[in-house]
Amino acid sequence: MRMLAICLIAFGLLAGTTAMAADGNNSPAAAANAPAPAEPANSGSAPNANAGTSAAASPSPAEERIASELDSMRNLLEAQSKQLLEQGQELKEQKEKTEALEKKLSALLPANANAAGAGSSSPAASAGLVAGSATPAAEPANGPSASAALSPTAAPAPANAAAPQQNDSGISAKYDGGFHLATADNKFTMTVNGLFQPRFTEFVANDDAKALGAPPTADSDFDIYLGRVALSGSVFDPSIKYFVQFQGSTSTNTNQTFFLDWFAQKEFSPELSVQMGRSWTPYSYQNFLNPGQFMLPDFSVAEYAFALSRSVNVEATGQAGKLGYALMITNSVPALDASTQENFNNKLGFIGHVQYDILAPYGYQESDPKGAESPELTIWSSAAYNPVNAASALSNQTAGDRTVGATTTVGFRDGWFSLQNTGFYRRTLSDVQPDFNSWGYAEQAGYYLIPRRLEVDGRISGVLWGASDFMGFTPGTEVNTWYAGPNFPYHRITEHSVGLNYYLYGHNAKLQTAYSYLTGNTFANQGFAASRVWIQAQVMF
After folding, report:
1. Res 129: pLDDT
2. What are phi and psi for residue 210, nearest 5 degrees?
3. Is the model more confident about 511 or about 16?
4. 68 alpha carbon, distance to own chain's centre
5. CA–CA dist 388, 463 (Å, integer)
6. How far apart are CA 151 and CA 142, in angstroms?
7. Per-residue confidence at 50, pLDDT binned at 50, 70, 90?
8. pLDDT for the residue 41
9. What is the mean pLDDT of the chain?
10. Cβ count near 35 (within 10 Å)
11. Res. 74: pLDDT tops 50
12. Rounded Cα gap, residues 283 and 304, in angstroms
């Protein structure tokens, strides 16, 4: 712009010079009309003509001023041109340096990208952490999960999550509910999620419970209750998905790590997906959730007693508007303290599930640190037939039983208040005693005293067995923290729990505490009771 202004000024001055020159010299027409000057008396020669010629050759003061201004302008233009040439040379040198640096960076990028990919391997959509709590027996975690597809309850991406970084190989990396890798065409993806729950437990049984066979001493114990790593994503096509999850725990007096889930899924449409492998079942709501998004540290006593947790199966699932469904054909579903996987006969299990969002979706988390912008209300119902292949103290069943059950959960949330009620029914068909009915329930609520930070909660849960079915159960073989009842046959148990949660970064980093008073009676109407304290920290990504 500066150079353009200078040029315009120069052209203006030149035009002015031309006009002034035209005004200072009479035009031919003016000269013709002008009166002739009077000649001197003695005009023998023509000296006046020579004098006129000499006067015209001398510049006027105006012409001298214009010439001076033009010289100044010319000098200014030359100086500006020189300066522009110097700046152009500097830009050229900077460009050469930048190109050289880019070449060095492009040579280093592939190695750095591979190193980052290797270092980030660790995980309900969560695509992520699914399925529940550790168990007191062989497998510490046949617990809850995320969604029947790839879990919707994984760790949420922070608001300031970094934009995807892409290297020369075309692989992008970012944090989005987990550490996410994807090829440029998005045909191959992987999300890595993780969950870590160290826990302290204090458990004390009263004298009546000790007289019935409860451990005589108190239990004060630190555990790595759950440690999980999950990998999920797609291969060859975004509709072909996979999920694999590892788990470790010390809560059963062991230090084992094993495959918890592994399945593949084909999504045909939002209304239909089919998956096959080992996975959590769509039977009960709490078992279906990511345990990192519980309101209290662990399952209710009713959930431990009636849950159909994990199995090897084939499942069809989908969502049509506010209605979701799942249909599963499965091997015998083991209880949380049983470890069988394969069928030993031709009896298969069946599970059917529907859920409906009456208001906004309640979602797949018992507590929402962000609160509800509008009222949420969802009803969840399932029914199941399960042939039992292994005895269980938690579920009060023995090998050879067949169970028919149903469960319903209603979840409501408004602002900073959450309410969740669940009921269970099960009929046990037995070859060794009369058939009997059993019932269970769990009611819990939570409220944020300080939004997003401090939550107080409470739960009442109970189990009522129709008959004792602990065939072959040996007192003292269960850990003494009463996940779903004491280590002796009982008729009824009730859990009264209160808790306090502090959220540092939502569910991704929080501290949970809970006190429970457990009371009940045997079939001979002998009462018993115990107290339990849980203090649990959590990191989830």
Report:
1. 57
2. -65, -35
3. 511
4. 75
5. 20
6. 16
7. very low
8. 37
9. 79
10. 5
11. yes
12. 13
Which 3 state secondary structure label does DSSP give 4?
helix
Pairwise CA distance, residues 11 & 3, whole Å = 12
| % of the chain with per-residue pLDDT over 90 | 54
* H or E stretch at 493: strand 492-503
If we measure between CA atoms, which residue out of 441, 335, 317 comes closest to residue 387?
335
The string of DSSP letters for 425-468 reads: EEEEE-SSS--EEEEEEEEEEEEEEETTTEEEEEEEEEEE-SS-
pLDDT digits (tens, 9 = 90+) for 483-505: 777 878 899 999 999 999 999 99
Residue type, 368: D
Q: For residues 329, 240, 294 and 254, what is the CA-based torsion angle, rounded to 10 degrees?
A: 80
Distances in whole angstroms, Cα of residue 186 to Cα of each of 89, 182, 239, 454: 44, 6, 11, 40
- Higher-pLDDT residue of 186, 294: 294
Terminus-to-terminus CA distance in the chain, angstroms? 54
Q: CA nearest 482: which of 537, 532, 535?
A: 532
Q: For residue 71, which phi and psi values (nearest 5 degrees)? A: -60, -40
Instruction: Give the Cα separation of 300 and 291 in Å (integer).
Output: 12
Closest by CA to 325, choosing from 284, 354, 358, is 354
**Residue 447 tokens, joined:** 């409220």
CB count in 10 Å sphere of residue 153: 27
